[in-house]
Amino acid sequence: MALAKMSVAEVEQFLRDEFPQAFSGDDITIESADGQTCLLRQRYSERMLRPGGTVSGPTLMALADFAMYVVLLSAIGPIGLAVTTNLNINFLRKGQPGQDVLAEARLLKLGKRLAVGEVNLLSGTSPDPIAHVTSTYSIPNV
């Protein structure tokens, strides 16, 4: 795979300008993105919890999808119309309340029209994933 076409700062600016509904607050930070991998952190909030006190599935799915979008943007540049065509998630264990959620994304294959990747979601400092995601993105002709 090629080197990153967008730095973390460039991805953040692009997202603030083009996708503020997903990247306007300070709850998600992009800690790294290099064209092959990225690391995102979603700061803990009680809004993340479902009844029973665990991190909700929709929270985890949204973070994983966003992480795939970030790693893809870092690899292909500012192509805002790249879209998710498939996302599969396996919930492995309970996400702990009070802990940030980390998303470690990695591109497995980057083609001209499709990108395939995976995301491991982690709770706090635990090395054991709370969910594993595979995802495919469609890349428009530009």
UniProtKB/TrEMBL annotation:
It comes from the Bacteria. Residues 52-124 form the Thioesterase domain. The chain crosses the membrane at residues 66-89. GO terms for molecular function: 1,4-dihydroxy-2-naphthoyl-CoA thioesterase activity. It holds the Pfam family 4HBT. Keywords: Hydrolase, Membrane, Transmembrane, Transmembrane helix. CDD domains: PaaI_thioesterase. GO terms for cellular component: cytosol. NCBIfam families: unchar_dom_1. This is Uncharacterized protein (TIGR00369 family). It comes from Bradyrhizobium huanghuaihaiense.
